[in-house]
Design brief:
The protein is an alpha+beta fold and 213 residues long. The chain has helices at 74-90, 98-113, 117-131, 170-177, 186-199, and strands spanning 2-13, 16-23, 27-34, 47-53, 60-68, 152-156, 160-164, 168-169.
Length: 213
């Protein structure tokens, strides 16, 4: 039985949904699922399992059940919708990414268990960029030189850090790379830098960010 998450869904015909799913074995793809009334209907943020077979246009789900449904509300729910939209927008189709699948599952579970969402969001954003080939280093600049705690840097697009007269302190950059979010301003700086890195790969603004306004 295959495992997957629903990233997006939209009505297709009277009794069908067109699902954009993220599968552990097959990566991101579109399938058709028959609309069902009840708990086991595939929905966003739920871990599902089942199988599908090739149809005339898209593969059709022939069996499915919900096997995990995280308890999310308020800010953690908004954050879960946000990381789901990131996957829908950045994941290539028909490429298996089991590490990203596990990252997503672990992050959903963490958001359901803790009110401290920011460290988990920053970890997800950075690891997603790394796994999809858009990563950068918190330890070295774009020339390959070590980040120095006493120096300052600007972040250049999705490439990395460039030595500058003014900018982010090397000390805070190194702290973020070490996961030390107790360091002053580390969480805020990480948010700004990762947003810039993500925007370099996105073709239009994320709709889910409006939830935080």
């Amino acid at each position: 039985m295959k495992q997957w998450f629903v990233l997006q869904r939209q009505p297709l015909r009277e009794d069908d949904w067109l699902l954009d799913i993220f599968s552990l074995s097959a990566g991101r793809l579109r399938v058709i699922s028959q609309a069902m009334v009840g708990r086991d209907e595939p929905d966003l943020l739920c871990l599902c399992q089942g199988d599908w077979q090739q149809g005339q246009d898209f593969p059709r789900v022939k069996a499915s059940e919900v096997i995990a449904r995280p308890s999310l509300q308020g800010l953690p729910l908004y954050c879960a919708v946000y990381i789901t939209e990131l996957l829908a927008r950045l994941m290539p189709q028909h490429e298996s990414h089991p590490t990203v699948f596990t990252l997503y599952l672990d992050t959903l579970n963490a958001l359901a268990d803790t009110p401290l969402v920011d460290p988990w969001l920053r970890h997800f954003e950075f690891q997603l960029l790394q796994q999809l080939g858009y990563g950068f280093s918190w330890q070295k600049d774009t020339l390959g030189n070590n980040i120095e705690a006493s120096s300052h840097y600007v972040f250049s697009g999705g490439e990395g850090f460039v030595l500058a007269a003014k900018g982010y302190s090397g000390a805070v950059i190194l702290a973020i790379g070490n996961g030390d979010y107790q360091f002053p301003t580390a969480l805020n700086v990480a948010k700004l830098i990762l947003r810039q890195a993500l925007e370099a790969q996105l073709t239009r603004p994320l709709i889910s960010r409006e939830l935080f306004i």
